[in-house]
Amino acid sequence: MGIRNYLRGTVFLSHAVKHFRTTRLRRTHPYGIIPERPSRVIVEPTNACNLACSYCGNKDMVRPWTYLPMDRFRELIAQMEELGVPRITLHTIGESTMHPDLPQMISVAKAAGITATLSTNGTLLTEEMCTALVKAGPDILNVSVDAADPEKLRAIRPGINPEEVLAGMRRLRRIRDEHGEVTDSPWGEVKLPSLVATSVITRYWDKAEEQAWFEMYGPLMDDVFFHWPNSHAGYVPDEPHKRRGILPPKMRDWLYKKVRYSCHYPWDALFLLSDGTMSVCRFDFDARVEVGRFPESSLLDLWNGQKMMSLRKAHMDFDFKDWSTCEDCNATFYENRHEHYLRSQSIKKRNGYVAERDMWLTPEPMKARRERGTGAIQI
Q: How far apart are CA 100 and CA 365, in angstroms?
């Protein structure tokens, strides 16, 4: 297991293996193995955001701020229910809690039997918002917070009020514990939502900051998760928190590009943006990876449409002449979720943190979780 973890968690080696598998698979499946339906839909309630985080491309987006209409969302849920799409995520590149109907969206999805997760920067967790979110009953609620030190947090996330975020997280935990819906789970009977804190490892992350982070946020969360920043597909070209390596950046990019793997999203998910654009990319700030519009085209038609097939072929052949946005996306150069998992486990262990709920269980309905066992969560 140790050797296997090492290989899976070593970015270059794991990507080289995935690259080889793609080149072998395309001999018999030039478009890859296409599921009958997406495994999830990732929804952008709004692309508006009240922060300007140093590692995020939202601040460089030129697309106007819009808010997803409820009638469009209800149509999405109806089609997801009909097709049997089991999961929805209510977050992409904006701050979800800025949408006035976010709790209602969660309620509509849950009423249809769909597993619902969302993420927030924690700046708008008022008593009213926390109560509405908890009563709506999402399965997972993720709060992104990258530092315990107020000055460091302000430097990473300009516009943030660290005291308000901490107060909001405490409020959320209290209301969840008091009023959350009780449900069966792999961890026994628990109250929803399960609360997760995620942190981007920036240049401010050191031993003292790490310890302070756990002391401040650890008691408020059911589990925690750490990951490295990236350029958000080129929207943050200077990458202020980029990991240092032995090779010069240009040589490293060239080398990793040679063993790039096929992005999994064209075979996994659809992304409904707040203006009705259907995309296939979590970094698509300006709707450049558009495969159609919803509900003008149905989910199934979009999933099997010509543009999706073209995108899949591009990723199988590593030929992006028709999808230039994908060409230099370093998420497919350097990202490795197993590396993030191993790093998270290591950080938790050295800080003596034991998760109340192991959130690396599959984020499917509780019964399915028990039947299927464990796997990596998609936060």
A: 26
SS3 72: helix
> From the CB of residue 87, how many other CB atoms can be counted at a distance below 10 Å?
22
Structure-block tokens of residue 47: 């692309």
Distance CA 175, CA 191 (A): 10
Quick one: the chain helix, strand, coil %, rounded to 5?
40, 15, 45
**CA–CA separation, 335 vs 323, rounded Å?**
20
> Per-residue confidence of the chain (379 residues) as pLDDT tens digits?
577 776 677 888 888 899 999 999 999 999 999 999 999 999 999 999 999 999 898 998 999 999 999 999 999 999 999 999 999 999 988 999 999 999 999 999 999 999 999 999 999 999 999 999 999 999 999 999 999 999 999 999 999 999 999 999 999 999 999 999 999 988 899 999 999 999 999 999 999 999 999 999 999 999 999 998 877 877 776 566 777 778 887 888 888 888 888 899 999 999 999 999 999 999 999 999 999 999 999 999 999 999 999 999 999 999 999 999 998 887 888 788 888 899 999 999 999 999 999 987 644 443 443 343 333 333 3
Please state, in angstroms and rounded to a whole number, the distance separating the CA atoms of residues 348 and 355: 9
Of 239, 331, 317, 238, the C-alpha closest to 283 is 331
- 176-204 b/e (C-beta count within 10 Å ≥ 16 → b): beeebeeeebeeeebbbbbbbbbbbbbee
DSSP 146-196: --SSHHHHHHHSTT--HHHHHHHHHHHHHHHHHHPPEE--TTSSEESSEEE
φ/ψ of 98, rounded to 5, equals -80, -15
